[in-house]
Design brief:
The protein is an alpha+beta fold. The protein is built from ten helices and 29 strands. It is globular. It binds zinc ion (2 copies).
């Protein structure tokens, strides 16, 4: 029967085509990692080099599995530590370091600022939620003794990309695996999906490029101070995500943890070998990162590489290696090593290894606000008494004269419902100014949002300041204010300033918080 014959022929042709496509796909899979003998590397150096995954989410935030499963995946991938960075406002006391499945789990936090995410390592519980302007979060992390890194600095989503490149950050993610796939075509991603089923780690790495924009930012930061670069897995795992009770479970379609941990890692050169005591070992690793004694490796190319550092803080190759090109990037005074190989994926190709400059770091100088002479400036010309503005259920009382105000506030407890309490006074708009200066203190550590409200639309510009029980002098340039409604650019027009506000709201406080703060010697400078 000719019909069935041609049908059979069609079937055979299709089968042959499918087979051909399949063999093509298999033949063009991303290569397996190269293995290189490390036998000739100094055993003492190897014992002081520990490999781990940085930037990992568990089911505590938007990851798919709990910490124990994440640690087990890291163990299968051959990692020795995992730095867990669940989303949060830093008020949760971090879990103490612990070995799970032989992997040291170090708890950290990824903080959402108004303009991008900031990961804080080595941070104790914060006394109030860390959030709001990036400058405020960077300053708070530093004051609390933490080590902060800009997460996915050049994320294609504007609300997740970093904008505040003048802030004194401690580190930056030079690569983020959860960003790298986002500039690939759908067809390419379909291909990666196939590769992923066969060779997970190399498939994930096949979308990596050398992120040139991020390197420009990193170099810019390092022209001023040493800034540590880490490669971020930003792993969320695959599978359903147990959200909070009552919330519908979401599903993470991303790569599994183990695949993420096989694609890239960070190697920390620690002072002495790990002891097995979790707190002590976490200290060694965090100190190594703080000092820049860390380099990133694309394990999917090859995980077999060891670097040694010389007394000037430069890393050099201590193992036999792939045919590599050695390049130097960074600033002249703080050069960093890059190892490139022809096997690297990407356009431009992702470096196989990125070193940090790990020379002597001076004790960091506290941020200076350029406080002008406290006798300078002139009184604000207020055209009203101080009064309280607040949401319907919170309460507050303001008392003060021209030069200052004391605000007692009690944010309503319970649900978040835009609680706020503010001390407000109106200004004479004919008086122009460039800076607002005052002295202030509060009962306990807190952030107060200083705001200027403008004519004619009552738009507000904000800048928060840290206060505690010791009086401090504050001087804020109008350039430092940001629009309350978002957006990063511009400077408020002081000639339209209608009111000045000192506000406590849910950016840096919680429902139920209560306290008092006092502002005195309020002045303007031109
Ligand atoms: Zn993030
Ligand atoms: Zn993240």
């Amino acid at each position: 029967m000719p019909a069935s014959k041609s049908l059979r022929r069609l079937g055979l042709t299709t089968a042959a085509l499918v087979a051909a496509v399949f063999f093509f796909l298999v033949a063009t899979l991303p290569p397996n990692p190269v293995s290189i003998s490390l036998d000739n590397v100094d055993p003492a150096l190897r014992a002081r080099t520990v490999s781990g995954a940085y930037h990992v989410h568990t089911s505590r935030s938007d990851g798919a599995a709990d910490k124990a499963s994440v640690a087990a995946a890291a163990a299968r991938a051959g990692q020795q530590f995992v730095i867990v960075t669940d989303h949060g406002d830093a008020t949760r006391t971090p879990d103490p370091p612990a070995y799970l499945s032989g992997v040291l789990c170090i708890d950290a936090v990824e903080i959402s600022t108004a303009h991008g995410h900031y990961v804080a390592l080595d941070l104790p519980a914060a006394p109030y939620p860390l959030a709001g302007e990036p400058a405020a979060v960077v300053e708070d992390v530093k004051r609390l003794g933490g080590f902060g890194l800009v997460a996915h600095p050049d994320h294609p989503k504007p609300e997740l990309s970093w904008t505040e490149w003048d802030e004194p950050v401690d580190g930056i993610e030079w690569l983020n695996a959860d960003v790298e796939w986002r500039n690939e075509s759908r067809l390419r991603l379909l291909r990666v999906l196939f590769d992923y089923l066969v060779r997970p780690g190399p498939a994930l790495a096949s979308v990596f490029d050398r992120p040139e924009r991020t390197f420009v930012h990193w170099d810019g930061l390092e022209a001023v101070r040493p800034v540590v670069g880490l490669a971020a897995a930003d792993a969320h795992g695959a599978g359903s995500n147990q959200r909070e009770e009552g919330e519908a479970p979401s599903f993470n379609a991303g790569p599994g943890y183990e695949a993420s941990f096989r694609s890239l890692s960070n190697r920390v050169l620690i002072e002495r070998p790990l002891s097995g005591e979790p707190r002590e070992d976490a200290r060694l690793i965090l100190d190594g990162i703080r000092q820049g004694r860390v380099y990133s490796v694309i394990d999917a190319i090859s995980k077999d590489v060891v670097l040694a550092r010389d007394e000037t803080g430069r890393f050099g190759l201590a193992s036999a290696a792939l045919a590599v090109q050695i390049a130097t990037s960074g600033s002249l005074s703080r050069p960093r090593l890059e190892l490139h190989t022809a096997r690297a994926p990407g356009d431009p190709p992702v470096p196989w290894v990125i070193g940090n400059w790990s020379g002597n770091r001076q004790a960091s100088t506290p941020p200076s606000n350029g406080i002008p002479n406290m006798t300078s400036g002139e009184r604000f010309k207020l055209t009203s008494e101080w009064r309280v503005e607040k949401d319907p259920v919170s309460s507050g009382s303001a008392s003060g004269a021209e030069a200052g105000v004391t605000l007692g506030y009690q944010l309503a407890a319970g649900r978040r419902a835009s609680q706020f309490v503010a001390a407000v006074a109106d200004l004479d708009p004919s008086v122009s100014f460039n800076m607002i200066a005052f002295r202030a203190r509060s009962e306990r550590p807190m952030r107060v949002s200083v705001q200027v409200r403008l004519l004619p639309d009552d738009s507000r510009w904000v800048r928060s300041v840290y206060l505690d029980s010791s009086a401090r002098d504050v001087a804020l340039s109008l350039r430092d204010f940001r629009p309350a409604e978002g957006g990063a650019g511009g400077v408020p027009d002081a000639s339209r300033a209608r009111s000045i506000l000192f506000v406590v709201d849910l950016v840096n406080a919680r429902p139920g918080d209560a306290g008092t703060f006092a502002v005195e010697n309020l002045r303007i400078l031109r």
